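Researcher: I'm preparing a figure for a lab meeting and need a structural model of a single chain. I don't have an experimental structure, so a prediction will have to do for now. The sequence is pasted below. Please return the structure as tokens so I can convert it later.
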Amino acid sequence: MKAQDYKQTLVEAIQLLANAENELFTAMVNVAFSGEYREISSLHQVGEVLNLELAMFEDTPDSNLNHLSKLVKQLAETKNTLMNLNSIEEEDIEC
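Model: Understood. Here is the structure written out token by token.
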């Protein structure tokens, strides 16, 4: 396998991790807004843009949210580590 093929395969793996991270984050928000953060959800209209951060979902009384947030964090850390080890920039990743 050529070095270029190897790097392209790594880029594809990182793209997959980025997509999984986004999908899992969305699922985690949906779980939160149908449970632990139901009140917050009712204050906002459908389609309204909210700026949410992972830290908002960590260390909650809901153990499901805690597990999901840990997994989102692990995906992000793995993606960033692979990018750093292989000198892959954000602009190389298409999400």
